[in-house]
Amino acid sequence: MLVLLAFIIVFHITSAALLFIATIDNAWWVGEEFYTDIWRICQNNTNCTEIDDTFSGYATIQAVQASMILSTILCCIALFIFVLQLFRLKQGERFVLTSIIQLLSCLCVMIAASIYTNQHEEIHDINRLHYQGTFEGKYGYSFILAWVAFAFTLISGIMYLILRKRK
């Protein structure tokens, strides 16, 4: 059981790390001469512009930002509650709250990545207006990490539900 708990803790920390990287790093959409994330747009690695309310798709980006931040916070809270519940609650009562919070984190990252997937054409049309250049590119590794973090948090939330029955 101790090995299983250690694996779950490492898995949860990995999920949180993936969420932090996906939220902070600047590689949601990348091309030859630019990269963009949910915070800024950079061209030629030197000319960076913060995404603010001057962008017409700012509300969409704000929804992605808020969902990713909330997902990261919920994942960290779930880890803290997991450690508290590990020593405080009886068998059968353990980890239900942790599972619920982790599944909420999963939902938030899914919402953020889904919004970005659905609206990325609109978002990058806005980028073209600011830079007058081509924004042909592909999804970057931060976007992919967001989807991997979704899978990890979903698996983690389900593992907590299964683990509550274990001795």
Automatic annotation (TrEMBL):
Keywords: Cell membrane, Cytoplasm, Golgi apparatus, Membrane, Nucleus, Signal, Transmembrane, Transmembrane helix
GO cellular component: apical plasma membrane; cell surface; cytoplasmic vesicle; Golgi membrane; membrane raft; nucleus; perinuclear region of cytoplasm
UniProt membrane topology term: Multi-pass membrane protein
TM helices/strands, residue ranges: 63-83, 95-119, 139-163
Signal peptide: 1-16
Major place of residence: membrane
UniProt entry tagged with the keyword Nucleus: yes
Subcellular location: Apical cell membrane; Cytoplasm, Perinuclear region; Golgi apparatus membrane; Membrane raft
Gene Ontology molecular function, alphabetical: integrin binding; protein kinase binding
GO biological process, one term: regulation of glomerular filtration
Family: Belongs to the PMP-22/EMP/MP20 family.
Protein name: Epithelial membrane protein 2
Originating organism: Vombatus ursinus
